[in-house]
Design goal:
It contains ten helices and 17 strands. By secondary structure, the protein is of the alpha+beta class. The chain binds zinc ion.
């Protein structure tokens, strides 16, 4: 028998989502918003009161804490970390979140009471069909829910609470962290990997129950700049070279079957998304994405060729293509640590779930940490429809996520980790 945590994961979650922690694009400081401190400081207090060790918070709103192991220290039982983020997306307001519990869900569409135009439909959310009898947690339709990532925060807090109250559960040393500004991509730079002290970690920031990710795609940013010659249009004959025409030509050459709006699953894309057009200089930023680094090279070559051909078709226009590496598929590192995924799949099965691998069409804090020396796959939280007013999770989603984490630390104690 295990002693229950001092507070249920659902009650924790319902408390945390009511705290506005929205981050803000374009801010230069970390955290980008002062309100993230409110939840971070609260977590510090709660970690201390439930008996975590070495609880501390950095100047950049990063919370770190530990649970010492209760099996003999051994290099085979490494420090395992768990990370979740406190902020919510800048896309939709996170102020005055009023969670609504649809108890004992019996099927059908969910109409959100604060804005009846917001309907979570079975047609668009096939996962609902698997949730009969569950208690589904939505918003009232006027805000996001913030299950991304307060579900992860609540699950990790419940893990700590459960381990402290149940010394009979055998586990190695645990490190936990709650980070700021994940949604704007900048917070993780202020995360101190050495301070955290884990050998391996998991971000608990995924979606559907059972979904585990050890792959993100590899990402580059191409900036294509066409240069012409601007003179007064009244006296331009034979002198002006308008770079806008080469710029337009380039855009019409984008391969239709290789765009975000025409691809899914493991298929990568090129995506012109932001630019400016002017006679003298026209520039466009193009995202390049693929799970396979060789295919990403192919996409980069294509962009360079199309840019060159577009300039060549417009005499007098020159072109420059600059390409930056944004991040790499974490699988490039995680393939050398297969136990990280094997253990979490086994943990999910012990929790009664059917785990599955899911490549992420994006980057995660974990992918960045992986390349900073902390291999870090991503674990589900039970959440759906992130960053929107139709975001939802459920009692079972939260409970099974927390339960999986408790199994996972025991599996590391039982089986160790290949180093
Ligand atoms: Zn998230």
């Amino acid at each position: 028998m295990t002693n229950p945590p001092s507070e249920s994961v659902v009650d924790r979650f319902l408390r945390y989502v009511k705290i506005d922690t929205q981050s803000q694009d374009g801010a230069t400081a970390t955290p980008s918003t002062d309100k993230q401190w409110t939840l971070a400081r609260m977590l510090v207090e709660e970690l201390r009161s439930i008996g975590a060790s070495n609880v501390r918070i950095s100047d950049h709103c990063m919370v770190y804490a530990n649970v010492p192991g209760n099996v003999p220290a051994s290099p085979d039982v490494p420090v395992i970390g768990f990370i979740a983020h406190v902020d919510t997306s800048p896309a939709v307001t996170g102020a005055n979140v009023k969670p609504v519990i649809h108890a004992n869900y019996q099927g059908g569409d969910l109409v959100l009471p604060g804005d009846p135009s917001q309907v979570i439909t079975v047609a668009q959310n096939p996962a609902l069909a698997t949730m009969i009898g569950d208690d589904i947690i939505t918003t009232d339709g006027t805000t996001l829910l913030g299950s991304d990532d307060k579900a992860g925060v609540a699950a990790i807090m419940t893990l700590v609470d459960t381990l402290v109250r149940n010394p009979q559960i055998k586990h190695g040393p645990i490190a936990v962290a709650f980070t700021a500004d994940e949604e704007i991509g900048s917070g993780i730079e202020k995360f101190d990997v050495a301070e955290f002290g884990a050998r391996f970690a998991y971000t608990v920031d995924g979606e559907r129950l059972g979904g585990v990710s050890d792959e993100t795609w590899s990402a580059r940013l191409a900036t294509v700049t066409f240069r012409g010659k601007s003179v007064h249009p009244g006296t331009a004959k034979g002198v002006m070279v308008n770079s806008i025409y080469a710029f337009a030509h380039f855009l019409t050459q984008m391969p239709r079957d290789m765009l975000p709006e025409t691809t899914e699953a493991r298929i990568g894309f090129v995506h012109p998304y932001l630019g400016s057009a002017d006679v003298e200089e026209s520039t466009i930023k193009v995202l390049l994405r693929d799970f396979d680094i060789r295919e990403l090279d192919v996409k980069e070559r294509l962009i360079r060729e199309l840019a060159g051909a577009s300039a060549a078709a417009h005499p007098g226009v020159s072109v420059q293509v600059e390409v930056k590496e944004n991040y790499l598929n974490m699988k490039e590192v995680l393939k050398d640590h297969p136990h990280l995924v094997e253990h979490v799949m086994e943990a999910a099965r012990r929790a009664g779930l059917e785990p599955f691998l899911e490549p992420i069409r994006g980057g995660t804090d974990g992918s960045r940490l992986t390349f900073r020396g902390l291999p870090c796959p991503n674990i589900f939280t039970g959440g759906h429809n992130f960053h929107g007013k139709q975001e939802f999770n459920s009692r079972r989603g939260l409970e099974k996520t927390a339960e999986t984490l408790v199994h996972l630390v025991q599996i590391f104690a039982e089986r160790g980790a290949a180093r």
